[in-house]
Specification:
By secondary structure, the chain is mainly beta. The chain has three helices and twelve strands. The chain has helices at residues 14-21, 67-70, 86-93, and strands at residues 26-27, 29-33, 39-43, 47-51, 54-61, 75-80, 106-108, 114-116, 121-133, 136-147, 155-158, 161-164. It is globular.
Length: 167
C-alpha cells in the first residue's frame, strides 16, 4: 500500500467538524418536552442505542433555548420527520421562532409531552441520563410508547440543507 498525500487535511476545529459532517446525510427529528411551556428543537443527532431495553440518544446544546426545560424533563418526545416537513424542521431549527404557534399541529401526548401531528413516527421516552459532552449534553432515554404508522419517506439533512431521498 502506498501512502497518499494529506491534501487539504486540516487541524481539528469546530469548523472542520462542521465541514466533515456536512458530507454526512442524517435523518431529521424534532425533540419536544413540556415545562412551563412546551419546547422543541430540530435534531440530526438522533440515534438508536439499544433494543433491549429500547434506548435512544440525541445531543442538545446547553446554550439552546430548549435546554433549561430538557435539563429537568422526565420525558421527551422524539418525532421522525418526513420529506414533506421541511418547513416544520426549519421552524424548530430557527432561533426565536414560535415553534408551537398556530402553524404547528400538535397535542399534549402521554406524560404531558408535546406530540407533533402528521409525522411518520414518534416516541415518548423517559430520560435516563444526561451526559456532558463539551458544549452539549447527550440525552439517553428509554422509549415508553410510540407510533410508527405515519408512513412516508424521511427528511434528510445534508450539505447544510433539508433534502429528500432520490430514486
Amino acid at each position: 500500500m502506498t501512502a497518499s498525500p494529506d491534501l487539504g487535511a486540516r487541524t481539528a476545529s469546530p469548523d472542520l467538524l462542521r465541514s466533515v459532517f456536512r458530507q454526512h446525510a442524517a435523518g431529521v427529528a424534532v425533540i419536544t418536552a413540556a415545562g412551563d411551556h412546551p419546547v422543541g428543537f430540530t435534531a440530526t443527532s438522533l440515534n438508536s442505542v439499544a433494543a433491549d431495553p429500547p434506548l435512544i440518544s440525541f445531543g442538545v446544546g446547553v446554550s439552546s433555548s430548549s435546554w433549561p426545560v430538557l435539563a429537568e424533563a422526565e420525558h421527551v418526545g422524539v418525532h421522525i420527520l418526513g420529506e414533506h416537513q421541511r418547513e416544520l424542521a426549519t421552524t424548530f431549527a430557527r432561533s426565536g421562532a414560535d415553534r408551537f404557534g398556530t402553524s404547528t399541529d400538535w397535542h399534549e401526548g402521554p406524560h404531558g409531552v408535546p406530540v407533533l401531528a402528521g409525522v411518520p413516527a414518534w416516541l415518548v421516552c423517559q430520560v435516563v441520563a444526561r451526559v456532558p459532552a463539551g458544549d452539549h449534553r447527550i440525552v439517553i432515554a428509554r422509549a415508553v410508547i410510540g407510533d410508527p404508522s405515519g408512513g412516508g419517506r424521511p427528511l434528510l439533512y445534508h450539505q447544510g440543507r433539508f433534502n429528500a431521498l432520490r430514486d
